[in-house]
Design goal:
nine-stranded mixed β-sheet; single chain; TIM Barrel; about 30% helix; 12 helices; about 375 residues; alpha/beta
Length: about 375
Amino acid sequence: MNARFVPPAWLLFERGGALEVRDLEARAPALALSGALAAAALEGDAAPLLRLVPFRPELSDFARDLSAAAPRALTRADVLRGGGYRMLFLELGARCNERCVHCYAESHPSRAEALTLDEVLAVLDDAHALGFRVVQLTGGDPLIAPTLLPAARRAHALGFETIEIYTNGLSLDRALLDELLPLRPSFAFSFYSHDAEIHDAITRTPGSQARTARAIAMTVDAGLDVRVSLIALELNHASLDRTVELVRALGVSPDAIRVDVQRGVGRGTFAADSDTWTMPAPSGGSHRPREEIRFGGMACVGFDGLVYPCIFSRHLPLGDLRRERLRTILERRDEVVVPAHLEPASFRERLACGDCQMRAALLTSSGPCVPLRRPSPRPEPTR
């Protein structure tokens, strides 16, 4: 279906002689315009809408954005960028010292795929040039990647607003922390239960709960920003309130603790009954920068060089870093054909964020994925 786009987050559909204006962030119900108002909007003339705002305040945001940019064809770059790039996930390598039952990336200790240092640095350079504000260094576990320190140093030199290291913390020691401290990274930790037996059953790594707790306390004591992600699974969801209490006792601020259910990506399986689970209310801890960007864009560079619109959107490869630069992949201007019925909620089993669900719905409908080399399946070794 042909649709027009008004940055940063409006889609305009002509339906039966009327104009439907949809907010991609779903902050408000769709607007319906007809007659002269519809014609003016399609021509990029915001004046008639602005005059009506005192009587129809729901037109205010759209009229303001229309006055700044005229409607145009929606391209893949528009879908990915939105109001501006916000966060890049950069997977340094696939190897991890845990083997979590739900790992989205299917990481484990014997995987060897990794980005080269030249690839990592080129990605950071491109991301900064594109306007990304936050970079998350992840994996696998980034603390065991030889490119971690060079990547953090380049990101710091480029001036990213936030450099976040997402880790289980098992390999964090005083020497590594001392090397990172001048770069002032923030840390994000995955944590699963106040009960060590449950936590270690999820990570399938004996002693992992105590080691992660120690790393959380160490980074808090060092004065770094720390957030913790609690992932709800069948094994732990019933006692996450007590897990939150433990994380707070380690010094993590309540608004830096995020709770989500596992997603159906990689080894993870979305629990169909998760809506019935009683869990702590979401309290914050999101990876979004403090100053919100309207329909802000994200991207993920995988440890195999494939690029995705989100770290969990692994069914939607956008391009191959080993064939093209990141900036070329993300700035492609292919026109997006919008389906008559957008169903972003159909992606909730994979994607937690509403804007990522919307992007997946738009990109899936247009078939933007390019033919890629596909890595051979790597079954997890048995112990």
